[in-house]
């Protein structure tokens, strides 16, 4: 079983809301997942993102692969968290 960290879509038509989840790579996009790792709401300005950083680091540490979109979100949020 390979695990992916990806977005699961929620919300109404034309009003997307996403959960960042750890899921088996073979399960459907909005289907069964292993753990909820955060949320992403692109409809507010700026986009609202909440993350459980310790759990994300755990899943990445045990070999989970983040999708391209989730990698971009994580990179953006981690840059905010660590001041330059």
Automatic annotation (TrEMBL):
Alphabetized GO MF terms: structural constituent of ribosome
Regions that span the bilayer: none
PROSITE patterns linked: RIBOSOMAL_S16
Keyword Ribosomal protein: yes
Keywords from the UniProt entry: Ribonucleoprotein, Ribosomal protein
This protein's record includes keyword ATP-binding: no
Family: Belongs to the bacterial ribosomal protein bS16 family.
InterPro entries named in the record: Ribosomal_bS16, Ribosomal_bS16_CS, Ribosomal_bS16_dom_sf
Pfam short name (any one): Ribosomal_S16
CC per GO annotation: cytoplasm; small ribosomal subunit
GO BP: translation
Protein name: Small ribosomal subunit protein bS16
């Amino acid at each position: 079983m390979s695990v992916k960290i990806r977005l699961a879509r929620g919300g109404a038509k034309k009003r997307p809301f996403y959960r960042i989840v750890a899921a088996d790579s073979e399960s459907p996009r909005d289907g069964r997942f292993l753990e909820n790792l955060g949320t992403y709401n692109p409809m507010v300005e700026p986009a609202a993102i909440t993350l459980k950083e310790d759990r994300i680091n755990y899943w990445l540490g045990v070999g989970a692969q983040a999708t391209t979109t989730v990698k971009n979100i994580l990179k953006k949020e981690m840059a905010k968290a660590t001041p330059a």
